[in-house]
Amino acid sequence: MAKSQKTAVGRRGFLKGAAAGTAAFVTTTPFADAQAQSSRPQEGGTGAAPAPTQAQVDRDAGNVRPPAAASRAITRPGSDLMVQTVRDLGIEYVAANPGSSFEGLQESFINYGNPPNRIPEFITALHEESAITMAHGYAKAEGKPMLALLHGTIGIQHAAMSIYQAYYDRVPVLMIAGNDPDFIAAHTAHDMAGMVRSFTKWDNEPKTLDEALKAIQRAYNEAITPPMGPTLVVLSTELQKDNAPNAQVPAYKPPTFSTIDATRAKEIAKGLLDAQNPRIAVGRLRTPQGVKRAVELAELVGASTSTAATNGPMSFPQRHPLCGPGVDTNYDYTLGLEAPGAQASITGPALAKIVPQRDTINVGFGGISGGANGGGAGRGGRGGGRGAASATPIEADAEASLPLIIDQVKQQMTSGQKARMQDRSAKHATANHEARITALTQALEARKAGWNGTPISTARIYAELWPLIMNEDWCLASPSNFSGGHNTALWDHNKPYSYLGGQGAGGMGYGAPACVGAGLAAKARNRMVINIQTDGDLNYAPGVLWTATHHKLPMLTVMHNNRAWHQEYMFVEYMAGVRGRGGLNAHIGSTLRDPFIDYAKMAAGYGMASEGPITDPTKLSAALKRGVASVKRGDPYLIDVITQPR
Amino acid sequence: MRNSSLAIASLLGAVLLNAQGGGRGNTAPANNPPPTSPVTGNAANGKNLFYAYGCYACHGYNGETGARPFVGRWGNLATEKGFIAFLRGRSNVAPLVPSTSMPNFSEASLPDKDAKDIYAYIRTFKSSAPPDVKDAPALNAILQAAKQQK
Ligand SMILES: Cc1ncc(C[n+]2csc(CCOP(=O)(O)OP(=O)(O)O)c2C)c(N)n1
Ligand SMILES: [Mg+2]
Predict the structure, then answer these.
(1) CB distance from B105 to chain A under 8 Å?
(2) b/e for B105-132, b at 16 or more Cβ within 10 A?
(3) Which distant-in-sequence residues (6+ apart) come within 8 Å of A579 by Cβ?
(4) Domain harbouring A282, CATH code
(5) What is the pTM of this model?
(6) Would the CB atoms of A571 and B98 count as touching at under 8 Å?
(7) Which of A33, A53, A101, B61 has the most CB atoms around it within 10 Å of its CB?
(8) What is the pLDDT of residues A218-250, one digit of tens each?
(9) Which ipTM value was assigned to this complex?
(10) Optimal mutation site among A322, A363, A434, A447, interface B, most CBs of chain B within 10 A
(11) Is residue A437 part of a domain?
(12) What is the CATH number of the domain that holds B113?
């Protein structure tokens, strides 16, 4: 006992001594009391604390021994070059839960460069599953990957479901895992990436630093080329820590995207220009640039469009004047962009294409093999015209093909056609606006059901929130299907990131971390993230609330708190019913009661401003206003709302 | 075989959920007057049973929201007898795919007495009288903003 006290004092002294040189940068010490005391004269004088003995250090480290001291001075560790490579790729964030297998890399991320810890900034994750889903949400909002670091074997295993979801969702996520052959044996493996190979796009475990830097660049390129997906580079601690005085970051070559050929571009342009009533069906494109080009093409040819913007990101602006059924729903030429189209459909390669190389152990995940558009997971857009058969998809990247079509349209268009298209566009705009008002009027009538009821209707949450954010730059990053999907009819999804869609593979525990990832994207861009948060989903890894608070992310969380995994409750209830056993026990294992969870307190525990639970619908609007105001100040906010189950 | 059909079933579940979340959200609330047929059960007890049997799961706590709101529609709730017949007549085959359909409630799993109490409670439901769109500031703001987008 006496010994351990002595050790603690020794350690604190050690920390104090170590902190002296960097005191100006320290904002919070681990013990506030210790900080307060440190300005007072200490008993025993103010002399520097003695350095700890080796025995003290050993004890402090428990069974975790410190790395062996390098026999030579490391002036330029390999990990600095790794970080430089990541920085040159423009990667904004790296999320990780710490692990010694990448301590070299972590040290470079936070200390290398001028300034250090910028592009990328280190984001503290409390669970690897959260780190990956943050990257998933970020990439959906921005159309480009961020990085996540994973501890050898165990970190990868924690991350697995999230990796799977990003894979299914065809979202680029860059991952680096550490492999430390000299430390804890259970954290090493001779084929680390093998655990997740069947649901990643590409992986590599380089043997030299030069190969490692190239592998990071290649992993980035593989992640962002269709079919997009998570990629993993495994880096040994040796490569991270060894001195590399002469190594260079290799020249980066951006990837090429497969496009349609010139003849096809000509044909499609002609088809659009010759048609009396052309239509463009837009699914999910890759980046905001692609969305811009889709808008340019539609405006050039005066085509009415359909959008997937209420299913997920990177699609046509929902309330663009050309978006809607148009003045006439008999379309004589429909072009599909990552969506079916009756006359032409440009669709990137399906996930099924990479399955033979990736799923070598034949796990055979369901829903991937079929369909030109990746199968499963509700991707892509709708609406190649009512009942129209779809053309055989042309396998190419629609986004990269758009400039070719736009060029051809510009070349081929006569002045007569131009006038006709302008006239048609104006008619579409009027018709679409009328259709919108009719649909909205009906939706408002429908969604006001239970408006004054207690608990609060899910529709009321979306309806009260929309007027408060409609003039802000916002991103709804949580899946809205369990909460009624009321945004679809009531809100305007006009930005590539307005709504980020579903989980990818239906895995719960996605909404909260995806919102944090979208919050990272939003922070530097003066945007706010809306998180309508189901209770079951939050409880898988609620530590993301701390991450949001710690990094001051502009995220408003409104609980859709039905005190249950309600979807499953309904399933179990039905099962009991059809077996003639009644619903009395259906709550066992599918509800969150006895006790109820207090989410305002949970948020407060993680340092997040919060209020609730709110049950009275007339109190909702004021709470939402406080929430929006807080988020606009840069402080994330959580409002617990007790809701109707659906 | 069993495994793969299960995998498909749970996937299907995930996809189906998309559709289920919205329930009948796009159908305007119906406004049929409540039934006037006799009620024999105990509404106070029925309230507890409405929760315990999980009726609220799909019909909302007030019968106005969720997958199958019934206030203003009434339909199978016109009479106590009709309601009980409806409960007994639901699907009773073992389903392959997870479902949120209305389950079957046999006499053994939900006795007539309980059914009558639940019916009595349901009959106390009234519309929570949603306002006209123009009278609810949020709803009105949504409509006016959309109109101005032209
Ligand atoms: C990782 C994972 N575990 C379990 C499930 C099964 N599951 C599907 S829906 C659901 C309930 C989710 O509860 P909540 O997020 O509160 O939404 P609610 O249905 O209550 O609206 C669960 C557990 C899943 N999809 N993913
Ligand atoms: Mg829930």
Answers:
(1) yes
(2) bbeebbeeebbbbbbbbbbebebbebee
(3) B94
(4) 3.40.50
(5) 0.89
(6) yes
(7) A101
(8) 999 999 999 999 999 999 999 999 999 999 999
(9) 0.86
(10) A447
(11) no
(12) 1.10.760.10
